[in-house]
Amino acid sequence: MRNSIVNTEFNLIENDSKNFENAMETEMVKPIKHFERELVKIRTGRANTSMIEDLPVSCYGQAPMALKTLAVLGAPDAKLLTVQPWDASVIADVEKGINESNLGLKAENDGKVIRIRLPEMSSTRREELIKVLNKKLEECRVGIRNIRKDFHNLMRDAKKDKTISEDFYNRLEDSLKKVTDKFVKQAESMSEIKEKEIRVF
After folding, report:
1. What residue numbers bound the domain in which 63 lies?
2. What is the mean pLDDT of each run of 10 residues along the chain (201 residues)?
3. Of the residues 117, 133, 154, the one at which a domain ends
4. Fewer CB atoms < 10 Å away: N or C end of the chain?
């Protein structure tokens, strides 16, 4: 059985709907923040230095080092990554590390800067990513609805115990719907932006 996520110390006070809304928002922002972190993990075809920053590169005859410790990384446009090693003498090692990675990238250098053109994403891969996105969105919606349920139970119990009036209970129901709708809409808007990115880049 799922535990209630509402702080047990939270008490409903007659006519204090602001405190109720604030407490609900504090809880509902948690699934939104989690969803934000999940969205970052869904790779689109848009160039992002996070795609290559931790690539291991062997140079100076030492153990492999993360690419970000050896070079300045950039993403000047949606389909291009640039890598400018601090030390030009390791440029061939860096290029080799990128080309031998499992990312399927092809690096080329001009002696100073390495350029990586990102390949087009297949339509099948795009659809797979959109399915993942929709699953993550639904998980976020469920998280928000669970919090809504917990607050609704709190209201119901307070009404039953007569610690709040019928009139205040009805006002809280409006608050509950307003805050829940706001966060569900926010999650859906975040998902739409990400889906557009997946389809375009």
Report:
1. 49-117
2. 50 83 95 91 78 88 92 92 94 92 83 89 87 96 97 93 92 96 98 91 71
3. 117
4. N
Considering the domain architecture, whether residues 113 and 126 belong to the same structural domain is answered as no
The contacts of residue 79 (CB under 8 Å, 6+ apart) are 45, 47, 117, 118, 201
d(CA 158, CA 18): 17
Structural domain count, the chain: 2
Six-digit token string for 25: 């928002």
* One domain, residues 30 and 86: no
Domain boundary pick from 59, 83, 117: 117
Same domain, yes or no: 151 and 99:
no
Q: Tell me the DSSP string of the chain.
A: -PPP-S-TT----TT-HHHHHHHHHHHHHHHHHHHHHHHHHS--SS--GGGTTT-EE--TTSS-EEGGGTEEEEEEETTEEEEEESSGGGHHHHHHHHHTSTT---EEE-SS-EEEEPPPPPHHHHHHHHHHHHHHHHHHHHHHHHHHHHHHHHHHHHHHTTSS-HHHHHHHHHHHHHHHHHHHHHHHHHHHHHHHHHHH-
Residue 131: give its domain's CATH number: 1.10.132.20
CA 98, 104, 109, 114 torsion-angle sign: negative
